[in-house]
């Protein structure tokens, strides 16, 4: 027989806090150990108001009313102190006569349960916020999101689906979506989706889907299963992304590459491409035919291995330098043909950088015939240069040697004119004509020697010249002619005071232009010559020589005023060599001369210098 425990002992063993409050003053009469955690060291006979412990003040206020009313009162998850929560129950109890004796206070610690409930509540709020955020993201992104179950039933689709397909929201998604897939893609799509669901895997494939306007657009479908191991997946979540433009661009690029390869294979030229590191990854068909090797035999450095052995190292170094710096590669090398014959080739390569990264495109052009022709032309040029030099030497020597007989003739003629007489009435005219012929012959020989000497002076060193000083020296040498004709000379070089040129060439040009201006001055007015230097807007130095002389008749800019022995005013002594020398000197240095003139008013020559490189 189980012994009966005293009532007070039973209350002490309870897992809940128990306290009895006696009388209207609500004094402690019993407090078990669990209750002391709440009310502290309460002693029997002590009022609860004096020793409330962690009992909430709101409970202390209603305890007297509960005693007076004699009714039960319960409160759930009441905060008692900063860290604990209790379920509190207050029940009145009576004595053996049925009179109100006091209150029974029960307290059950539910702190852990309340904390768990609070965490669950917060987690639920967070889940709802994340769910709302995810829904906003999926329904505003430019793609269609969907969810299907293991049987292929569509359980969710975002609003973008209805906007893209034009289907009503009431449509049966599971039944309608396969009908919107292009007939050529339908079976493949259904099979791949079913196979992925059967093995519990995701899928990634493209197909054409009919849009609201009836046009089929390429879509990329991706989906992954929702995994909860060890259970098999039940749902697949995915997205549809339109890739129509990318698909068309890819197709166009593929067609373009095929066409370019066809074009490259049709060109009778060695064409190749290389990676950013300089390794060749493509040879056209003509390269294989020309070399007699396969792509594997040529390898990533094939064209270097086809060169002459003594040229390979230098070519490889230049190629490595071009690849490292990105600069264009170009050079002439002898390359072996399929029959073992080495022929000269011009090898060029340029780098192209685009979105896919840098690549090299190169060609090897057979220039064997051009190389041999260039050698022949060089040989002929050397022969012509020697012949030209010999001719200049001959002209210079001839003009120099012929001047002595001319001088002898002039001396004999002077002696004849002094010692002999003629009965001819036109004696004076005949003597004048012979004297003029001898003078012209002597001037022509001098001009021929000057032409050859000027050609040799074109190789003289270049220096920075003071234009004012050089022009002053030239005018000083022409001072007798200037004074004889009463000429007025103006020198305006402030806009371009310096010129980097050959001193001898500059003196020859200016001397000829100024002497011509004096020689062809107008008979009724004194010569007025202006020498002015300046720069064009392109910073090219110019020398202008303007006079008020007889002028020239120029039909067009191509009039042969600069041709050798060309003359317009035959009544003035001259040989027609001066302007030819000017044009020859200036053009040989890369410059040019222009002339504007009006008969009876004057002429202006403009010399556009080309300054030699430093």
Automatic annotation (TrEMBL):
Catalytic activity: ATP + protein L-histidine = ADP + protein N-phospho-L-histidine
Full protein name: histidine kinase
Top-level taxon of origin: Bacteria
Organism: Hymenobacter metallilatus
Keyword rRNA processing part of the UniProt annotation: no
EC number: 2.7.13.3
Start and end residues of each Histidine kinase domain: 397-613
Listed NCBIfam families: sensory_box
Any one GO MF annotation of this record: phosphorelay sensor kinase activity
Positions of the PAS domain: 130-166, 256-298
PROSITE patterns: HIS_KIN, PAC, PAS
């Amino acid at each position: 027989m189980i012994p009966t425990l005293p009532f007070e002992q039973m209350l002490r063993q309870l897992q809940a806090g128990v306290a009895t409050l006696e009388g209207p003053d609500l004094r402690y009469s019993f407090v078990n150990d669990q209750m002391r955690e709440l009310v502290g060291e309460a002693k029997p006979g002590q009022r609860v108001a004096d020793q409330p412990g962690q009992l909430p003040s709101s409970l202390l206020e209603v305890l007297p009313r509960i005693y007076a009313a004699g009714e039960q009162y319960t409160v759930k998850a009441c905060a008692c102190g900063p860290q604990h929560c209790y379920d509190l129950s207050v029940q009145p109890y009576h004595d053996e006569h049925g009179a109100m004796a006091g209150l029974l206070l029960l307290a059950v610690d539910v702190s852990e349960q309340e904390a768990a409930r609070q965490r669950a509540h917060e987690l639920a709020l967070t889940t709802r916020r994340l769910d709302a955020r995810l829904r906003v993201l999926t329904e505003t992104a430019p793609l269609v999101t969907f969810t299907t179950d293991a049987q292929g039933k569509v359980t969710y689709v975002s609003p973008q689906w209805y906007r893209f397909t034009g289907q009503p929201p009431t449509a049966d998604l599971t039944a309608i979506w396969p009908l919107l897939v292009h007939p050529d893609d339908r079976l493949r799509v259904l099979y791949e989706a079913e196979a992925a669901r059967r093995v519990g895997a995701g899928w990634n494939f493209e197909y054409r889907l009919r849009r609201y306007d009836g046009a089929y657009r390429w879509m990329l479908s991706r989906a992954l299963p929702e995994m909860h191991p060890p259970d098999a997946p039940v749902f697949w979540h995915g997205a549809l992304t339109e890739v129509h433009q990318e698909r068309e661009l890819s197709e166009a690029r593929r067609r373009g590459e095929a066409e370019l390869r066809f074009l490259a294979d049709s060109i009778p030229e060695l064409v190749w491409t290389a990676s950013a590191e300089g390794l060749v990854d493509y040879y056209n068909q003509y390269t294989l035919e020309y070399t007699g090797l396969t792509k594997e035999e040529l390898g990533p450095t094939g064209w270097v291995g086809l060169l002459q052995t003594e040229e390979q190292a230098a070519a490889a170094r230049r190629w490595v330098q071009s690849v490292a710096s990105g600069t264009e590669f170009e050079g002439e090398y002898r390359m072996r043909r399929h029959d073992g014959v080495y022929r000269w080739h011009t090898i060029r390569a340029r780098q192209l950088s685009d979105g896919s990264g840098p690549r090299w495109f190169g060609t090897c052009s057979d220039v064997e015939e051009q190389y041999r022709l260039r050698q022949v032309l060089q040989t002929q040029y050397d022969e012509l240069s020697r012949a030209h030099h010999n001719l200049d030497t001959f002209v210079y020597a001839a003009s120099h040697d012929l001047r002595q007989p001319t001088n002898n003739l002039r001396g004999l003629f002077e002696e004849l004119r002094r010692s002999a007489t003629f009965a001819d009435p036109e004696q004076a005219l005949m003597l004048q004509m012979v004297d003029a012929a001898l003078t012209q012959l002597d001037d022509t020989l001098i001009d021929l020697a000057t032409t050859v000497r000027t050609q040799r002076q074109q190789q003289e060193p270049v220096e920075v010249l003071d234009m004012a000083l050089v022009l002053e020296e030239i005018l000083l040498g022409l001072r007798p002619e200037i004074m004889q004709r009463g000429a007025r000379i103006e020198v305006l070089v402030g806009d371009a005071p310096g010129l980097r040129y050959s001193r001898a060439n500059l003196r020859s040009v200016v001397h000829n232009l100024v002497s011509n201006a004096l020689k062809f001055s107008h008979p009724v007015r004194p010569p007025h010559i202006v020498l002015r230097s300046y720069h064009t807007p392109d910073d090219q130095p110019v020398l202008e020589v303007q006079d008020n002389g007889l002028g020239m008749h120029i039909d067009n800019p191509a009039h042969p005023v600069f041709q050798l022995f060309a003359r317009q005013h035959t009544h003035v002594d001259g040989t027609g060599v001066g302007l030819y020398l000017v044009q020859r000197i200036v053009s040989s240095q890369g410059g040019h001369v222009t002339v504007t003139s009006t008969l009876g008013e004057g002429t202006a020559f403009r010399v556009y210098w080309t300054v030699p490189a430093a």
